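Hey, sorry for the delay on this. The queue was backed up all week. Below are the sequences that define the complex (chains, strands and the ligand SMILES where applicable).
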Amino acid sequence: MSASVPASAPVPAALPTPARPTAKPTSAELLDFVRRAAADTDLIASLPLDAEGRTWVRLEGPQGSEAWLIGWPPGTGTGWHDHAESVGAFTTAAGTLKENSLAARLPTDGWKTLELAESVDRERRLATGQGRAFGRNHVHEVLNESTDQHAISVHAYYPPLPQIRRYSRTGAVLRLEHVERPEDWQ
Ligand SMILES: [Fe+2]
């Protein structure tokens, strides 16, 4: 039995604002997305794995974000890089990943080498189910240090990656090696 609504039912003075599909996702929302995707066992099982190198599947991220499912054979890693102005999040869906990152706000442009202060290095291990969000200009490298176990992770970025800056690192010195743009990834 359904209740009938009287014609004179009062209208709330202010309706809650629905989430706008064009709203920019925050890094916390991206972290929520990657956690939910990592818990989707059918999705994780759909990623082709290759013992020789990393594998990728592009996912539809929330609110126009760029998302990826990535497979990491033992011993593979990204090298040092950042994601320019994009915020993002990632989580480990299988195995364990190690993230080395810099807890420093670096100048974004206008330099080729930078000597890092002691104390800016951070390390974290992200076991299955563990993830992190990050802000703009987050400089890091991600590695699967296992000798025998594949790792799988889910990543999301907003805005969709306009560029990735790649660095080499020798001791405390970070050197900008090249800038990749989306046309380089086609
Ligand atoms: Fe990254």
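The pocket of fe (ii) ion is lined by residues 78, 81, 83, 140 (CB under 6 Å).

I'll add it to the shared folder too.

S.
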